[in-house]
Specification:
ThiamineP_synth_TenI, 201 residues, ThiamineP_synth_sf, 9 helices, alpha/beta, TIM Barrel, thiamine biosynthesis, 38% helix, 8-stranded parallel barrel
Amino acid sequence: MQLHVITDGKSTMEELSKKIADIHHQVDFIHIREKQRTATEIVGLVTGLINNGIPPKKLIINDRVDVAHVLNVGGVQLAYHSLEVSEVRRFFPELKVGRSVHSLEEGLQAEREGADFVIYGHIYRTDSKPGIAPQGLQKLRETTRVLDIPVIAIGGIIPENVSEVLATGARGVAVMSGIFSSPDYKKAVIAYRSQAKEEVL
């Protein structure tokens, strides 16, 4: 199982750097999702992480293809408002490209355009998506059966339900608040990691 952790935009730069340094050995990919930060701030954060020994290939930048390219990190995660996968693949062929999707159709489109993986959700009810019905395990299972690229599940995933998520064929889980908003984030990441086996996308 792949364990992706996604920053929640709630920590200071110093707090975030410390949290990532503390947990990076336990995770497969770290998504820098700091929507309120400028490109310059993200470059500073990521440069500091790399200088402190975080492997660049573990780092995935949310939306900002320019930052991911300049820093030569592991990849970029595209949202609905981001550039199309095909455009990123055309101009930045060295980047691993992920796409956030919310349906099988969106997943198929991302695969056709050359995405390396998709993050699919939300699977369970979550405070970050109030009033929006979750996709659920059955839709996740249908998506994993059809797509050839890895499907990473997100949304309301806790250590106790990781096994049923993986039973759908998902290649891993992505976690945001369950780790970065946890009062004991180091204990939290170990709880998720205990469900995981190392695997490369």
